[in-house]
């Protein structure tokens, strides 16, 4: 055989062998201790789907949310905590087992108020420990679960209503039943693939009697249809074996969505709000559905049935009825008349009455949970539910940087990434109303662009002047009417700061911040007339503009070449111009494996190569829940899919890392996914990161913070992702690897938060400490492991607790060294816990793991904004060191006193004859000690007068926490205390020379042993 062939073959085998040894880490094994940080906000909360009371404990309330999971309150709704973070965050219904209400709760996922921006569910879940742990119990293809009814006499018998798919046909719709606690399910009512069960109600006195509202519906990206011949209200009296329509008295013809409720105190009374063309409104039956009578057709009862289909009856009074709606309605005369509920956020989705007091109510809205104590006349918002639903976010370069974003039904806002005391509600500033979408900060000016739905308004806000101007592009002569998406795209040029882009079906550009516009493209969409100007809504007309289609949805100017602009449309076109808009090419035909007309949700133009871009396609509006993520490196001539089986949920956004082009961040409907190898392998990030829909991702260049805009859990930040940039196979094969990091800044900041109460949400600040970041190939479980900060001479400055997890570990150093040894006393002194601050410079980092030692370094730099001179800084260090030494001198002095007293008291117990010598000795030592430390009191009510230790510690702490030089009064006080310390030392010397000397002679004479006193060095080393 040819020698060259043999060598080539061996090379291939060797190469394959190397590839086989690649280490692929996933999830927590890769990310280690990198953690997400939640900053809210909660003052503009988010949509609540379902509220449920504990049947016997009025303090326990559950809230199911549109995109933020399930939250539980144990204090009557004053505050809530999340209990469902690891699972689908879109909730349809929460149901408490009446037989075991403290422990057993069921959750059906998938939002049931079917607007165009709703997320999806993935089945039904159960907890048997009050929400600590959950188990999926099936119905994985249900998509939207509306109802869970549990037999109050048999927990194994459960009925579930499945609305099903919103965007396509599905045979998984209908009413399901289990008789074995969810192990198996039987479909007991099914109409067809377009008709789902939007409500299932059980008679509270007879679990065999059930009502099921069946709803025919369909949403597309350009239309919505509610109602049809198959919508109907059914009743079963034999536990679901047979069903009959109960329409006696209902309107004729096609019906839509029903809202249904049975009065708990009198099940013969049933209320139903019926969607129909004629005689729509609230119907009442007094014979358990045998016949119906129309009582009321108020607008508040019938508005937007697809969005408001919840009616609730007071548990004790069948004539008190509440209905969700634009403002919510309540009747106290059995449905004859209604009035609006109290002042709160609009769009009311659920109401529940307190189990003991009907004047106490909970209301779920598009803006969070509200509570009332007076029957809905006045309402109070729950302030700690950070459920805000961002469509898009962006960041600026301020310090601290700000995050900007638009919210579902809650306007547009911006707030800081950190704030004294944490990020509070008052830190957020409103910059828009309505449904907020894109918000962008001008790169060099204090100008913010924001918009509301459908580009009805496009605001240019001057922060300094507090001035707002609408700069929306308008139709021009010779051009068609403009079609703006509900979430209209905006972009700012990286090359020309005043250049501002917007998209309708055309690409618009302004060179003067929106004052004047020109169109630089033809219609870039398919311009399909079948998807335009449809009469949306079905039985109830609902033409809000949310279904405007064949529009531009995403715009990306290349950060490398301003002539290269990418545009993506909601009907599937990926267009590119390489000459600033003169010529355009549709690259979608070049994308293999992509279904036709799939929505182009985001295009990311690369920072590394001008021919490279990423495109994320969202097919869920075509009932296609697969992720579609592509990359081109040749201006769209060819595209490569980056999707692997690791990705869960349809994708919405991608961010390329600014420094490492193989590091990509992907937002899907079920969370954040990261790849470090260009898309070959993806890992889901779950460290304090819920499975929330990530609608937008931005990367702050200065801090390397990854900022996520979620649609249900507000803003989430992963601080400093730079370690991920450095991970490669060489790193992964090391037992220990220290990541290089930017210098740690000793910030000269201080201040106070605004004073939020314990019931208000406050977003966490990032750590202000220096960080030592390293990778461990394996988790450290056995043997000693230490982490030490040392100076250049190898002297230990401080010992830190090392992280031992597999993957990335982060250890914070607050720039402090070891605190001084503090004199023992009756009470503690807070100032004594203060450790001196380390000087700026480079320090060794020594990690010892078993017998092995690993070394790195950390650089500390003074605050670049500091006004403190080097001489002042040196004076502060010098005085701190002197006070530190005084603290330790005092500690050693008190230690010597205590050891003498201890020995004397031991001897006295054994030999009462020594009392005379001991009494004199102990008396003088205690008299001296009482001037040095507090020896009485309880440090609170019976607080003693401060002695030398307390005064010295207070001064030491004040000076150690300074950055500038100490004041003259502090220097004078230091000298005064130093003199007192010297006097105390002298007094002790006298006692040693006289009383202690006598005591030692006694000990020698009577074989009493020595007084055990360590040297000062030994004492201070412990």
TrEMBL record:
Highest taxon listed in the record's lineage: Bacteria
Keyword Repeat: yes
InterPro entries cross-referenced by the UniProt entry: Sortilin_N (IPR031778), WD40/YVTN_repeat-like_dom_sf (IPR015943), Xyloglucanase_GH74 (IPR052025)
Keywords from the named record: Repeat
Sortilin N-terminal domain ranges (all copies): 124-248
SUPFAM superfamilies, per database record: Oligoxyloglucan reducing end-specific cellobiohydrolase
Annotated spans, Disordered: 521-544
Pfam families to which the protein is assigned, alphabetical: Sortilin-Vps10
Name of the protein in question: WD40/YVTN/BNR-like repeat-containing protein
Origin species: Aquimarina rubra
